[in-house]
Design brief:
- By secondary structure, this protein is α+β, with helices and mostly antiparallel strands.
- The chain folds into 2 domains: 41 residues, no CATH class; 110 residues, no CATH class.
- A hairpin with a 2-residue loop joins strand 2 and strand 3.
- The protein has a 4-stranded antiparallel beta sheet with strand order 1-2-3-4.
Length: 177
């Protein structure tokens, strides 16, 4: 792992303080990121990669962004999110719905979706980036995912735009509004 250390020197009220910011490049985190504590890495978050992953991993089967996707689960538009949110708060909300989400993944996609940390970071970046969300369209959805969505629509499920009889009781947004 290659590390770069940048030192800054600031003088506040005659008191000199030195601070260090560690960044890294690593095969495990190809996009780089920041070391925030010994052994704790926060990866760089890429909304454009997150946009691709949201569609290709099948999140779009149940969740909508920019009016595109299913409605069996809460919309994940930026308008449904808190204006400022820690990615860890976002993951905590996901964890709260994990049991139902995993059941839906197995029913809709045939298996539980697997993510690594970088993929989750990128998806969260996409869901919190208005410009990236506004470009999301059905053209971004891979054919194999479109087929799943169309097949579900044919069987009375939520399909591309969704129906009102989704499996989730809470049809509100990600934050439970």
């Amino acid at each position: 792992m290659k590390r770069r250390i940048a030192f800054g020197l600031a003088i506040l009220g005659g008191i000199a303080t030195a601070g260090a910011v560690w960044t890294f490049d690593s095969p495990a985190y190809g996009q780089g990121g920041a070391v925030v504590a010994p052994g704790l890495v926060v990866p760089h978050m890429n909304p454009q990669n997150g946009k691709k992953l949201f569609a290709s991993k099948g999140c779009v089967v149940c969740h909508q962004v920019n009016g595109v996707g299913g409605t069996d689960a809460p919309s994940l538009d930026i308008t449904t999110m808190e204006p400022v949110m820690s990615p860890f708060d976002f993951f905590a909300k996901m964890w709260g719905g994990a049991e139902g989400m995993i059941a839906m993944q197995k029913g809709e996609l045939g298996e539980q979706i697997k993510f690594d940390g970088q993929e989750l970071a990128d998806i969260v970046a996409f869901l919190h980036n208005r410009a990236a969300e506004q470009t999301f369209s059905e053209a971004d959805i891979p054919d194999n995912i479109k087929e799943l969505m169309e097949g579900d629509e044919d069987s009375g499920g939520m399909g591309m735009k969704g129906d009102e009889g989704g499996m989730m009781e809470n049809k509100g947004d990600m934050m439970g509004k």
